[in-house]
Amino acid sequence: GWGGHQYAAGFSVSRSNWNDVHTHLEEALSSMELEEPEITALAVNPEDIAIDTWKEVTTLGPFGNGNPAPLFFSPRREEDQLLPLGRDGRHLQVDTGGARLLAFNGREAIESAPRPGGWIYRPRLDYWRGQERLQYVMDYVVVDELP
User: Fold this and answer.
1) What pTM did the predictor assign?
2) Domain annotation covers residue 8
């Protein structure tokens, strides 16, 4: 069988039929409307999450469909600083004063948000130069008000 979980799917098609299949898939998928999922997050500042506590949380995994990883919310503060991350300008860090949230491909989302009210993020264990540490990866920018 194909796949390893309830959301997995697959099919095979001969090369000679691929153009027709591609055209029909494009037509069918272009008319689909996707709903944004409701986001639930715990209000916890990243600097308040201890590495040992996060390791304990990860024992509730594996996380994925049917068992989502916990998300956390940190309100935006006036002293939060947006700093560049990487060489190409697509990524940012939000320095909260006690931690840095990594916003991969986040420059556009953060800069286009009319009034960022906070950050939704998830911790992850990272190993750098032989040292274990927590990183905080931003998933969403919370907007106070839409224009």
Assistant:
1) 0.74
2) no
